[in-house]
Design goal:
This protein has 266 residues and is α/β, with parallel strands linked by helices. The protein has a single domain (5-265), classed as HUPs (Rossmann fold, 3-Layer(aba) Sandwich). Helices cover 39% and strands 9% of the residues. The protein has eight helices and six strands; from the N terminus they run H-H-E-H-E-H-E-H-H-E-E-E-H-H. The protein has a six-stranded mixed beta sheet with strand order 3-2-1-4-6-5. Helix 4 (85-98) links the parallel strand 2 and strand 3. The chain is globular, with a radius of gyration of 18 Å. It binds iron/sulfur cluster. Iron/sulfur cluster (SF4) is lined by residues 80, 82, 124, 131, 134-135, 138-139, 217-218, 220-221, 246.
Length: 266
Amino acid sequence: MTAQPHMLTMPLAEPALSQAEIDALNVRFADCTAQEILAWGLETYGDRLVIASSFGAEDVVLIDMAAGISRDARIFTLDTGRLHQETYDVMDAVRTKYGISVEVMSPDTVTLQELIRAKGPNSFYASVDNRRECCNVRKMQPLRRALGTADAWVTGLRREQSVTRTDVQFVEIDDSNGGIVKLNPLAAWSEDDVWGYIRDNDVPYNKLHDQGFPSIGCAPCTRAVEPGEDVRAGRWWWEEPELKECGLHPGYFRDLAAAAEAAAQN
Ligand code: SF4
């Protein structure tokens, strides 16, 4: 698809959407392709829309789509400083293939120095509080900085990723991040859809996916999973599931715990 940079010069819509408008958009988007939903976001919000990417499978699909719609699409990533080499490799591959820049959000230097000086480089294994503190410094603070420049953000969340994500909508209001719009163009996609798109379009992807890593985060906090294990089982595997929360998508692990409790009661 030919790049259409003029799209980003279109007048911006009022960012704040009412619930009625959200509901109407979700009905409309049920008949749209993921590309059409993403194009709507780019046209509506221009450079006030950011695409979040950790370079997982869904993220590289979104990058490929966005590059086909507008070379000016803003893509950001949270470089925690603890990522796998394979993640940096796919970041480079994406930059080369699409000729795009990636807004790399790093932790605040002074805050990170103080954390490591006080608690060492691997404090996250010692307690949940320590792990959340590290995620806050390395992920949440940079995320807030990135979203502070946006009226809308795009994620690769899919309903099929977990029984607790079955209610992911194409468009949502993100109350956890200042009430900006959250766009999930792949909400209705299956895992086969994702990998079919990657194969058909020769999209660069993280080679850790070939080594049993369905979900990829920081190197010291991510491991491969066995066949049949939950896709998130390889993240913070030493913690109880209900405590696994880094804050990027609040509610996921809380919902997981609630679902487990409900299942136990049935
Ligand atoms: S995933 Fe692990 S290393 Fe990465 S920010 Fe969270 S605690 Fe720190």
